[in-house]
Amino acid sequence: MVKYEHEIGITKGTPVENYVAGNFEGETNEVGIYLAEVFKRLAWEEAEHAARFCEMNGIIKPTLKENIEWMMGGEKMANAEKREASEKAAEAGIETAADFFRESSKDEGRHYKILEGILERYF
Q1: Could you tell me the pLDDT band of residue 31, with boundaries at 50, 70 and 90?
Q2: Do both 75 and 51 map to the same domain?
Q3: Last residue of a domain, which of 31, 56, 81?
Q4: Do 51 and 70 belong to one domain?
Q5: pLDDT value of residue 9
Q6: Distance between CA atoms of 28 and 76, rounded to whole angstroms?
Q7: Are residues 80 and 43 part of one domain?
Q8: What is the 3-state secondary structure (H, E, C) of the chain?
Q9: 68 and 116 belong to one structural domain
Q10: Looking at the 3D structure of the chain, how many domains does it have?
Q11: Is the pLDDT of residue 72 over 90?
């Protein structure tokens, strides 16, 4: 028997669930802030915290395959939403934002294709 194994979903449906959800949101926000401020080590630590809160509330799925499929849906949606935001920013004449949304939309599409390749190769 393995000791100290991470358990998925241990706070789901408990009085602690909202605290964990709030901490997850805070940690993920801090990742972006720290990266923007060039504090990459802090960002990495915050990402690790967010991952643990994600596990505690059972946000992730029970199997790797289910997680990949779930993430593919998110990447596909993010690709489309960022592309739309790019178009809106361009219409508003905010080229810096349009360029960023366009570039990050491409990143989301690339993430989708990477996950799709993993899914096809291993599942």
Answers
A1: confident
A2: no
A3: 56
A4: no
A5: 83
A6: 20
A7: no
A8: CCCCCCCCCCCCCCCCHHHHHHHHHHHHHHHHHHHHCCCHHHHHHHHHHHHHHHHHCCCCCCCHHHHHHHHHHHHHHHHHHHHHHHHHHHHCCCHHHHHHHHHHHHHHHHHHHHHHHHHHHHC
A9: yes
A10: 2
A11: yes
Same domain, 46 and 86: no
In a domain, 47, yes or no: yes
- Residue 87, Cα to own-chain centre: how many angstroms? 23
Distance from C-alpha of 74 to C-alpha of 84, rounded to nearest angstrom: 15
Domain identity same for 105 and 70: yes
* Tokens (6 digits) for 74: 């998110």
* pTM of the predicted structure, to 2 decimals: 0.70
| Pairwise CA distance, residues 52 & 30, whole Å | 15
* pLDDT band at residue 7 using 50, 70 and 90 as cut-offs: confident
Residue in the block written with tokens 């004449």: 93
Range of the domain at 74: 64-122
> Could you tell me the maximum CA-CA distance found in the chain, to the nearest angstrom?
60
Q: Residue 93 is encoded by which pair of tokens?
A: 């004449």
Query: Which tokens hold the place of 96?
Result: 């810096």
